[in-house]
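INFO  loader      accepted 1 record
INFO  loader      residues=107
INFO  predictor   begin
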Amino acid sequence: MELTKPDDVIILSMDLSHYKTPEAMASEDERTLEVLREMKPLETGTLDVDARRAAALVLYLFKDMGASTGEVSERSDSSAILGRRVESGTSYATVTYSKKFSDFNTQ
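INFO  predictor   done
INFO  writer      dumping tokens
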């Protein structure tokens, strides 16, 4: 069953860590971003993110579309955004997925 078409775009917007200090968020996010970057959908169940099941589904869809890895272009948290320390904040990241450039040339 074909899940996606060549021109499809899939977007998942979700927060990462919640209710943690900046240091705890950074530590947790390191693990989360590895799972997202390395496209490990079976490991999303233990992540501290808003939508674990949606993350797994999107990773499967990206694999179906031919993506092999994600690229983290930014990561931030409540403290950085507000410019002051927040003891119980939320973190965010932008991860993009695409086919390798060489894959586009072979189609």
